[in-house]
Design goal:
This protein has a 5-stranded parallel sheet. The radius of gyration is 25 Å and the shape is globular. The protein contains 15 helices and 7 strands. Helix 13 (330-339) links the parallel strand 6 (321-326) and strand 7. It has helices at 2-22, 30-51, 57-73, 78-102, 105-123, 126-144, 152-170, 176-182, 184-206, 233-252, 273-283, 300-312, 330-339, 356-370, 372-397, and strands at residues 217-221, 225-226, 230-231, 258-262, 291-294, 321-326, 344-349. It folds into 3 domains: 2-123, no CATH class; 126-206 and 354-398, no CATH class; 217-351, HUPs (Rossmann fold, 3-Layer(aba) Sandwich), CATH 3.40.50.620. It is of the alpha/beta class.
Length: 398
């Protein structure tokens, strides 16, 4: 009876928040509904634990608080993704233990949801992943054209295919020293998969940024031009995301905000990206006085560095800054903002679903490249070890 009452309270609150968000011009469903769901769950589990004279929920909440504080201190660290994944596994174990003690219906429902998620992930095994990657690569190449950046999902699919064929048909037929040599590839893939999982987790969490409507500057990051003079659809979405925030802040608070259009002129471009972005913004009715051009940068890192100089030219004691880019790009952009001592969070523009796997892979490679020295040292040591094992195995066989 108690469980039914709490379920009723949950659904009434859920529907109330949903209806309120529908009435807003800038409807935001995920964060308010997610906040209500988590709050309800914590309160419910705490009540059940108190009734059973146990307080295991305290450990789970302490872990969650640690993750939150670490995230607030620096949102752009991969360790935050790792900590959240550890917490997620711990929470699943806690729910299982909780259900064994209480046989609670709501806890059972949560366990079923988690099991569906985990088993769904497991069923999405290597063969299914390879098929999906091949399918995705064909779509990307067809719609976006052939380039190294657009070949990433295809390259990954080919590597996984080689590993699958080796494990299924060759591993038991080759000498042990050959197996040692070949194991360098799957080990490296497993190593990077661990980091990719943490990267993907924190990247998705970073999407939940909801900056307050009291910003002084919004930086729009450049992304190439059509025929060297017009913004691409991808870049237009970045600008539109910034303009949406610009309009909402003015309408709801009246607080003025400057838009910094950041992007230099490439060797094959007729104008700078910043200039083309300004023409686009002017066509959307934005006053010229609210647009600032940063037309010297050639990368995301220099976008942040040169935009910071523009911000510092104004007499703000502690300017409030955000930046706009595509959703897959804002986490890495946030890293460069921090490296340039620019306290700014990102807001992401939507990207076509078919393009996201390729885009996230490219972002991940770029982040790995930022710390390539430590990764290469570790993998180099592992490679040396496997080579020694292969040599030892070869000598023994002889």
């Amino acid at each position: 009876m108690q469980s039914l009452f709490f379920l009723l309270v949950f659904f009434v609150g859920f529907l109330f928040i949903y209806q309120r968000q529908r009435k807003k011009s800038d409807s935001q469903y995920l964060v308010p509904l997610g906040t209500w769901s988590v709050t309800f769950l914590i309160v419910y589990l705490s009540i059940i634990e108190i009734q059973n004279h146990s307080f295991y929920i305290g450990v789970i909440l302490a872990m969650l608080l640690l993750i939150y504080l670490n995230y607030k201190r620096d949102k752009t660290r991969l360790i935050n993704g790792f900590l959240f994944n550890v917490w997620f596994v711990s929470f699943g174990i806690y729910l299982g233990f909780h259900f064994l003690q209480t046989r609670d219906v709501i806890v059972l429902g949560l366990l079923i949801i988690l099991m569906i998620f985990v088993f769904g992930f497991a069923l999405f095994g290597l063969i299914s992943l390879i098929i999906l990657l091949y399918w995705n690569s064909l779509i990307v190449l067809k719609r976006e054209g052939r380039s190294l950046g657009n070949l990433l999902t295809l390259i990954l699919a080919l590597v996984l295919t080689v590993i699958l064929i080796f494990n299924l048909f060759l591993v038991n037929k080759l000498p042990e020293y050959i197996v040692y040599l070949f194991s360098i590839l799957p080990f490296s893939l497993t190593y990077f998969s661990f980091f990719f999982l943490n990267f993907l987790t924190i990247s998705l969490i970073y999407q939940l940024n909801r900056p307050k409507l009291k910003q002084d500057f919004v930086i729009v990051l450049g992304a190439g031009l059509i025929n060297g003079e017009r913004v691409t659809p991808l870049l237009a979405r970045r600008i539109d995301r910034a303009l949406d925030f610009y309009h909402r802040q003015l309408q709801q608070t009246g607080h003025p905000i400057k838009i910094i259009l950041s992007g230099g002129q490439g060797p094959d471009e007729k104008v700078s990206e910043a200039f083309a972005m300004k023409q686009y913004a002017l066509a959307q009715g934005i006053p010229d006085t609210d647009l600032l051009l940063e037309d010297q940068s050639t990368s995301t890192e220099t976008n942040m560095a040169f935009s910071k100089k523009i911000i510092e030219s104004y007499s703000f004691t502690t300017p409030k800054v955000i930046f706009a880019s595509n959703n897959y790009h804002i986490f890495r952009a946030g890293i460069f903002a921090r490296q340039n001592q620019l306290r700014a969070d990102g807001i992401g523009a939507k990207t076509a679903l078919y393009y996201l796997p390729n885009a996230f892979l490219r972002e991940f490679i770029a982040i790995i490249a930022l710390h390539r020295k430590k990764h290469f040292i570790f993998l180099g040591l592992v490679t040396i070890f496997l080579l020694l094992m292969a040599i030892l195995s070869f000598i023994i066989l002889k």
